[in-house]
Amino acid sequence: MLFEALVLSAILFVAGTFGVLIRRNAIIMFLCIELQLNAVNLAFVAFSRSLGVEGQIFVFFVMTVAAAEAAVGLAIIISIFRHYETVNVDRFNLLKW
Amino acid sequence: MSLAAASSLAGSGAGAAQEVLNGAAFEPFLPGLVVLLPLLGFLANGALSLVAARRAADVVRAGGEWALPAKGRPATHTLPSWIGPGAVGLSFAIVLVNFTRMLGTELHEPVVVEYWTWMVTGTFEVAAAVQLDQLSMVMMLVVTGVGFLIHVFSVGYMKDDPGYPRYFAYLNLFVFFMLTLVMGASFPVLFVGWEGVGLCSYLLIGFWFADREKADAGKKAFIVNRIGDFGFLIAMFLLFTTFGTLDFVPVFAGAPTALAYGGGLVTAITLFLLLGATGKSAQIPLYVWLPDAMAGPTPVSALIHAATMVTAGVYMVARASVLFSLAPVGSLTVAGIGALTALFAATIALAQYDIKKVLAYSTISQLGYMFLGVGVGAYTAGIFHLMTHAFFKALLFLGSGAVIHSMHHALHHTHKDCDAQDMRNMGGLGRFLPVTWVTMWIATLAISGIWPFAGFFSKDEIIWYAGAAAGGAYSALYTAFWIVSLVAALLTAFYMTRLMVMTFHGSNRTGPEEARHLHEAPWTMTVPLVLLAVLSLFGGWINVPEALSESVLGLFGALPMSEWLHHWLEPVTALAHEVRLDHVGDFRHTSPFGGGELMWAATSTFLAVVVVGVAFGTVGGWKILPAAEAGEPQRGLKRVLYRKWYVDEVYDRVVVQPVVKASRFSWKVIDQGIIDGVANGLGNLARAVGWFGSLFQTGTVNTYALILTLGVLAILGYMAFA
Amino acid sequence: MADILFYVFAAVAIGGALGVVAGKNPVSGLLSMVVTLASIAGIFVLLQAHFLAAVQVIVYAGAIMVLFLFVIMLLNLGHEYHADLRGGAWSVLAFAITGTLAGFLARQFRGAGEGPLYQVLGGGDALEQALAEQGAIGVIAHPLFTTYVVPFEITGILLLVAIVGALVLAKRRVS
Question: Are C105 and B716 an interchain contact pair (Cβ–Cβ within 8 Å)?
Fold first, then answer.
């Protein structure tokens, strides 16, 4: 089962990467990033079966940080939306000097 | 006298080295001050000229025209009249004191007074030191003495020039450098003076720098001199590698043992030294700057281009007499160039109309005689002629200065536009300028080599020794030089008489209006003329040759100081003479065509008198038109001589144009094309790299996400496969 | 039995993932995500990480996804489907990169039964023993409050900062 779990984790991660690269909507991109995080969580838990409970502890922290990151990221998207009236990331070129 | 007391008198600074012989020591009297006083004069006059320039600039900036006031000149223009001649006069006084002291002692070794160590690099050490011996004493007397007279003359001549303080500043600076040159105790110190007089020559020739031609003449002088200086430097390098030092005393003392007689090394050294000398002393091939140098004020021509700077080359050869006597080929070249130049320049002088140009070519010709003298090994004769030439040539130049001054004055009054220096515009000036007329005739007779004037003794001694040297090797060549010098002497008599007749005799061609304004020069200008005339008359009597002193030409023994200069300079030339005796043998006592010195001396003076008379009659009978009507000679030998044998044109084609082309190539292709191209190319490359980098900075999130992913991929790839 | 359950959960998870990536509008994408999260929670249980499964459902699916939903509703999105997916060169590039990534990951599974991965997986049963001793909660609680208490506290601060940041950033500017 561990082996198959890892395969699943890989598939989910690849799917998440693809989504990040292919979508323009900021919120969907964010969701795909969350998907990647979940894939990694799965891999951690699978390995913790063999290597010890530290894997699960790490997953705990990942989830916490993901929550914080989601909160702040969405707040940023909201404030950008107020300015641009859209969440299409191609329009956000403020990072260009 | 104790050495301690002696040291305290030896001048400023520490470390005086002295030689005591025969119980009487020569104690130099403030030698450093001799050199220092003109430098102080330069500084003071220079400060005054800066003040004057500042004032003039203020006036011009306020929109006005600056000119010397008609009455009451400002302090900046009156003080230099005292500072300039005063500094040199004081130097002359100190030199006289030293001279009288040296007369009282028997000095066999030079006295070197060291002031401080100038530079030390590895084994090479040069001290700022002066060398006092008989030769440097003669030169010092000439430089300060004649220099002083010319300074006094300049007070009158340059009175109305706005650049008056600047003139005296440069003149004093020149005397400083010239004294450094003749008093230096080592080749580098001599070279400092050498370069310095070149610089002052440039400054003074181009004194009226607003005139493009005059500024160019200054440049030409400096550049041509530089070519010679290159030769001098190479010679110094060769000397250093041979001797390990460049001080005169050890180099000349060690030369006979360190250098093989007639060897390649010593010949190379002497030839390179000669190259330097031809540049400074205006011999073939580097004489071309001297006629152009007449663009400067006339006293400058008198001081620098007659009496002192151009004699530096002769002095240098005389100083290095040991080296030249060790190199027969080198000496032969010196003599050959001297003889050839003497004849060549004399031919050109025959066809010149500008009074100063005639004198310029005359100077080149007489310098040729000096080189002939030192080239055949008669060093004393060369220095003797240097001395007498300083007297009569300075007199000739100053006299011509008085003439030109007078002509300018007259032409200024009537506002007539014609060349004040062209002899065809003069004529009959003897009536108006009597003192100048008489003194210049004395100088003419001296330069023509007529007894008993100064030039007779010095020039005839040189001609005699040229013939007497025909005993050993290269006999045919020396005989040829002897004949050439005889011919040149006759030509000298002719062109000088021509000058005198065209200027002072016959009817006046300036114009009736102008003639009313022609008058004699003021006392500041005539007194030096008279003094120099006295020297030109009696100056030759200090070295009457032995063969002559009992004869009519020696007034049957009444003329004093038989061969005095010869004995005086003996300690300096002894070593060279010894080398000559060892390898070649002494000078002969008969000329190549037989007959002794007395016979030939009498013959040459007789011929000179005949030529003067013939010239007087011939030139007096010519119909001379004023310059504006006459125009240039058009055809034949006259044109070639007038155009100076086209040497300047040849130099331009052969040397100047290729150099200009090469520098243009360096500029366009190498500097602008390659070097700037590389520098600009690097800049453009940096720009291109920056532009390429900027492509990544799109500012959009997706680009960054992509690059992030690529980075992750790279790491994973590494971990997967490595 | 566990294997069958696993494959069911896995299929659901993959389906949900595809729904997220290719979803028509944000809400449907989000709901697919919730489905995926739930399946992963199930797999956690199968892998003896009971506490994490619970946290997954409560925090991830329950709080974070709800937050997303609030934002989507707030911004009133979901009307431009066709403009959303990138086309042309970008999609080719995305496929290429994703393919390369998949290849790299697949390489980790090399050497059936003998490769490096298998050696890690095969060894040890450390978790079993700890579970038996301390129970599902204790096995996490013990390390968390002893060895890892510092990161734990820092995470608390992090959450505080996130709250403050989110408040400041999203606040409507009242002039």
Answer: yes
